[in-house]
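Notes on consecutive records. When two proteins share a document, each keeps its own sequence and its own token line. Never mix them. Below: protein one.
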Amino acid sequence: MNHNPSTRWRWCLLALLAAAGTAWSQQTPASVPQGFSYLPYTRHGYIGVNLGRTQFDLPCGVAGFSCDKNSNLSFNVYTGGMFNEWLGLEVGYLYTGKADRAGGSTSAQGVNALLVGRVPLGQFNVFAKAGGVYGRSRVRSSDPSTYYSGTATGGGAAYGGGVGYDFDRNNGIVLEWQRNKFRLSPTGHPDADTTSIGYVYKF
């Protein structure tokens, strides 16, 4: 039996997403009240998924190893709701993908809790987010690179912003940039910058 904590984390996430997907598939848009939100004290909720890439602000070590600080595909799944027309709350799960560097790879995953400020401009909107991230990182490197290798768990700041476009009352897209300060070593919180595009369904 696999007792790796990271593997257990991913299995728990998959089970949670499967349960949420099953519950959602049993609902039709007509069965969800207008203005519904999954988050308490908020209304006009939404769910979304973003795909993109993450850039890690990390050194590459020595010994001439490859140093691509950009990850492969990253993703973010989230839900949010609004306290009023301008201010809301959002929570989600982010996986950065893996970046090949220092003879190994770097990746991180975690959960966000963010306050959202939004300015509607007709079918467009601009938004900014600020809050925190709590997650787990995994850094693998080759010994000759002299760079840290291991796992770390902890929290840090998160913030970002972007623009959105609504096709209709329920469906929209977003273009977003977000910075998460994952704990990527026992002592540091370097930046992990994710640029992504996503689909948002609004209740």
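Protein two starts on the next line and is unrelated to protein one.
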Amino acid sequence: MADSALTTKLRTDYREPAIDCNFEEFAKVVESRRSVRLFTDEKIPDAIVERCLDLTLAAPNSSNLQPWEFYWVKTPENFTKLQEYCLSQNAAKTAATLIVCVARPDRWRLGQKINLDYFATRKDVPPPVYDYYQRLVPFVYGNGPLGIFGPFKTLLMNALGLFKVMPRGPFGRSGNLLWATKTTALACENLMLAFRAAGYDSCPMEGMDEVRIKKLLKLPCCASVAMVISAGKRAPDGIYAPRIRGPKDVFIHKF
């Protein structure tokens, strides 16, 4: 079932040509994105934040299940509380905008429904795709009451993996949380690059009181705050040091 959905060339009538992009302009956006610690008093127009959030949701994600949520905290009372819960660090205290990026491993069923509902409107969806979302997705991401199936799936896949190439996760609550967090992090990068392209800057903050933030946003216990992204107009002294990176050959390997 998995092989037919993932390795078979699917025959559909859909076509989406790649558009021409300016590589050097994109490189400027990536290279000029910095973690800014101080922002000016300039506000970010709501329309720009909305557009940046649209681009956030365009990020790639596992099986298109979209296990994420993004909370744009706008009310003054909640904004002040969130600044405090981000340890009152400068990147939060001076930000024009704060967005909480949340991994939601429990919402794979919603992602499944979104895809199946879309497929129901079309006549050209290959059967292996239906099989993938109707049968494989629940097996991989569903763990039963209290997660009791997770350990058994892990044992099964590892045993089968002795004889053939097999996926080794995500299984169980911890596996699903890691899966959702990785996908959410991809979207976070989209958000920060979008702000930079719009002429603003950002800072991904992991230093925070997650318990208080989850309470503020009324999040369930299974949700996880991946990071809080602050954004605004870069202050002249908003970057504390040049970008420091190790030698390329320490991190990039060719085999």
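For the record: Strands lie at 68-73, 97-103, 201-205, 224-232.
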